[in-house]
């Protein structure tokens, strides 16, 4: 769900590229709040991890007791199964970023790496097996 303090002037530009089940979407948009609630998750959960690289602007918000504050040239990781409220902020500055939606089943990461951890500053543990 998206909401804006200025719905009458809100603008966004986004392109969605499907790369064999992995979605890549570069975007430019005005400040907005992205919210994912438990009812939305119950209604539809793609079980993805969403990685966002911010080029311009800032993301802040929370996942339960965990909070994030991500700026330019930083990455956040969001689990589609976790309720959240993330604000893309920066005054009236357009936000520039690129998102990558990856099905969790396709990533050889233990649940402890992504569960409840919307941001990682260290690389994931090495994958085992093939």
From TrEMBL:
Official protein name in the record: Transcription regulator HTH AraC- type ligand binding domain-containing protein
Matches recorded under InterPro entries: AraC-bd_2 (IPR035418)
Protein source organism: Nocardiopsis eucommiae
Entry-linked Pfam families: AraC_binding_2
Limits of the Transcription regulator HTH AraC- type ligand binding domain: 3-110
Domain of life: Bacteria
């Amino acid at each position: 769900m998206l909401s804006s303090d200025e719905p009458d002037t809100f603008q966004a530009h986004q392109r969605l590229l499907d790369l064999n089940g992995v979605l890549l979407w570069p975007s430019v948009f005005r400040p907005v709040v992205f919210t994912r609630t438990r009812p939305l998750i119950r209604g539809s959960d793609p079980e993805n991890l969403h990685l966002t690289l911010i080029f311009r602007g800032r993301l802040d918000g929370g996942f339960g007791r965990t909070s994030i504050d991500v700026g330019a040239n930083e990455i956040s990781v969001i689990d589609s199964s976790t309720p959240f409220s993330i604000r893309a902020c920066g005054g009236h500055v357009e936000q520039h970023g690129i998102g990558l939606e990856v099905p969790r089943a396709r990533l050889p990461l233990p649940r402890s790496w992504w569960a409840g951890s919307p941001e990682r500053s260290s690389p994931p543990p090495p994958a085992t097996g093939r």
